Predict the structure.
Amino acid sequence: MTTLSSHVSSRPIPNPKNSLITKLNAGTGLIVGVVFAVATYNLLKGENEDPGIAYNIHNRALLAAMFMWSIGFLVGIGAFIGPWRWLIGKDLTAEEQLYLAGDGQGIKRYFKYCTDHKVVGIQYLWGVITLLGVGGAMAMMIRTNLAAPGGHFITASVYNSLVGLHGITMIIAMIIVATGPFGNYIMPIMIGAADMAFPRLNALSWWVLFTAIPVLCSAWFLGGIPTGWTAYAPLSIQAGPGMNAFIATIIIFAVSTAVAGSNITATVIAMRAKGMTWNRVPIFVIGATISVALAVPAFPTFMVSMIMTALDRTYMTGFFDANIGGSGWLYAHLFWIMGHPEVYVILIPGVAVLMEIVPVFVRMPLFSYIGAVVGFAGIAGLSILVWAHHMYMSGWMPMLNGPFMVTTEMISIPTGLIFLVMLGTLWHGKPWLKLPMLGVYAFLWNMLVGGITGIYLSDVPADNYLHGSMYVTAHFHYTLMGAALTGAVAGLAYWFPKMTGRMLNERAGYVSFWLIQIGFQVLYLGMFTAGAEGQPRRVVNYASQFATANRISTVGAYLVGTGFVVLLWAVVHSWRHGKIAPMNPWGAKSLEWTVPYPVPLVNFDTPPVVTSDPYGYGKAVK
Amino acid sequence: MSDSTMTGTKRTASAIIAVALGIAVVGSLGLTLHKISADPHGKLYATKESGTINVAGKDYPKATIKLGVYADNAQPKDVGVIEAKVNKQDWVHFGPSTHLVLPANTYITMTIRAYDGGERLNTAYFAKVVGTVGGTMNVDGKDVTSIPDDKVEHTFTLHGIPSQGQDSLFVNIPLMKVEEGDNGFLPTQDPGTGMKGHTVTFSFLTKGKGEYVFNCEYPCGDGTYAKFGAAMSTYGYMSGKVTVA
Amino acid sequence: MSEHNVDLKPTPGDRFTTFLKRKDIRETLAWAAFYTAGFVVLGGVFYTKWMPTSLSTDMKSIERLMVIFTWISAPVCGLVLSIATYTFRHGTRGDVPPEDGPPIRTNFLGVASFGAMAGILTLTAVVYGLIEMNSASEAAAKDAPSALIVEVTGSQWVWSFNYPAQGVSSNELMLPKGQPVIFKIHSVDVNHSFWPVQLGIKADANHFQTTSVTTTPNKLGRLDVKCAELCGLYHAYMETEGAVVEPADFNNWVTQNGGHSA
Ligand SMILES: [Cu+2]
Ligand SMILES: [Cu+2]
Ligand SMILES: [Cu+2]
């Protein structure tokens, strides 16, 4: 058994004394960021007689301050030292580069501009946990308010803000939930690489994302947002100052996604170990790559739509204001051209994690590897052709509803392949029912419900009734939470030993798993019923006929919430006190299980050579 | 299987504490949101009057309530606003409170003093008087059923969720703008403050208990899209709640 | 099997029978039957029980569609859940990993039949949806000449209705039974979505363009008109009521509200 102490780096800790980089960290970033923001705001704020112009000026000052916070933070943490050196014709010294990798700097490196992909992975993990915690707490508030009709718990504006900020917080969290922690920490090791293709960009993607979090939270102190996470125009043009926080968050996040996405794609294309041909790449890596490669073209349209919203709010450009020649449909298109691929950006990595898990715990090869790849690629390819199914009722081109219905329902075919791969691997096996494996079963049920209800929603006549109702809310929670988040949690249980050197506490894991999954069914079956009965989504108050369904939902939500607190406890507790993990606790065959914990700075002492895919399980047939 | 550095009891205890802590954190967050959701100016109760009135063959008890619509922060203190809770924004608003409490099954006579200027409605329908006894309102002593849709200052539009298992209630009162020598209606001055405004009086019947809302349909959220942001979209200015108790 | 058959290759029929006799197949099939039946029942009960009374053929066909789609997907549920249940029941617990299973990497017959099934079911759903959609638009075209026109206006947070031919406007939606109606919908501010729940139709109210939608109420009853697009502060309260009434009652309502029967 390889233990904690057996592999501590023997290199001396690099200490480039005179270099500025040794003095910079998140603290200096915070200071510079706040100074930049406050200075910008005070420089740009102003009064005007005309309330419209005053409104524009205020939005300008707030938006600029938010962007300058982000830039200031990055300056303060030293993100631009490398590029600056290039400008003056130099680069970081070798010693400085090694210092940036953070080897041997203990916990401090997590608060620095650290280029080690394993550090970035852990940073992303805690970023995700924070976002899920905040988003989850907001979900509890929403459900508490809806526990009984009347809307007595919170008022309409607070409720609307909760709905929108819960939505966007969770969307951001879910986009990075698997590709952030596992894509950064595990994936490079899985493909036998020493690091990511662009380690400094890797650090940049995390810290850029980090700066978006306070901006997002500031929405609460600026009066919230009335628009939901879809931020439809022209409601977003009418909205108060909180909307600026939403806009800035999306733009900053889109930069982070572009950086992270191109980095992951480049890493997988260029950094695979010798012998790791495309048909030997672990399926998680394939899924994560397809996901980020889909995000790279999708997110810019969201960013553009937000820039246009910002311009409408700051200079009255009128892109989306019909009174001066704009159109709300333009926004809806830009949004959903991102929005539909985006749900698969979230879903695919979660599913890919589970596909990585199934063969290990069933001890059989992944059934139809090609089917899995074709399934992911088919979903990704079709997903860019379906966006207008969110606009069936908008009045835009009713004659195109048919074609969009066809493309949307065709996604069932590659999704079917995903099921086939999972079921085919399970069949003939006697699965080892450990925590990660339970996630696979939860996925099968949740994705089944989410997928089938998706077919109703994609059907134009049925959508006439269901569009904009609670049924939609329940449907996408089944796919995004029931399937994708379940996959990510299973992934955490699976890779926890490699990321922390310890095993995740099993008993707490099981307790949280059952609390979450049972609570989840109660929560969303209640919501499906409310939707079928005709309750619109995003309402602070509702008709008494929906009372029972909503009360049931709220009970379910509390179970889910408790389950996640137990899981959080298990993570924190096991991280510190958990049982020391062996190098390969699950007996898996992929490369990440061949390195010890702590994983050495360059991952492998000698670069590995791959001769087969990691699914070579199975005894000869009798 | 046991973990390496902690006993079972201690572990269970720490898990329970963690769950309790989680509930405490989320609970206090909830309380904070609940607190900021409170009515900024408390509740305004209708005053019960003695005697009853017969409408369509049925006797109703009577109650009255008075509201004002104030441009910017012009609301004088003598209408009952507590200094500390005065609106933080310099916005047009209903006062003294935007949470009205009315008795059930009662003949409510509401008087609104309207001090503001105005223009054209977004939707002409709201220039019509709807839902009052007799379908009329009284402006400065004259009974009318509607006013021109370009002479509207604000509206008092009361509605709810009809399917909520409570009686439906819909009242729409267009308030006339204050203009020099206008429209054949005579704005009067308040004694003391000298503020000039129209007096609009109307009566409607409340039915069973229920929760309703009211808002203004005249676009007065200046500077925002459709003029429906700011004061129009922020609870406690041009919108509020009505509780029939 | 008799003794002289031993040397012969088993025919496909024989192979199928032996396949069916396998214990794992039997248990899985039993589960599949159970789940399929479960979903068939669920589909028949759930939507008919929970969806509101239908006051138009559009609503009726939506309800039927929800039920039939559930039935179409019932065998898929049966397949997925039976395999899941079977393997879960026969899984390994404890700290020792199970032995490796057979190294099956793919199975042409399995993949092909699964793919075919997914394709056929998807095709069925697509074709069914397209047919329903077309009959809806055909009906709309046929209804146009004799239709009642209702102009629907969404204002932040109240619906109002104007009947131009009758010269009536109202905050409640009254419709005569049996007459086709064309809703012309627009918004004076942000996006709303006009949703008369029991009629099974929905259309966004946009500021920049009027949308229209057609239906024929075919039953008397109460209507709930909701807003299905988040439109700001009081979106939840943007709801009104109405009714489908006898034509005579509709005419009375029109005259009572100062209009003239067209
Ligand atoms: Cu979509
Ligand atoms: Cu107003
Ligand atoms: Cu709405």
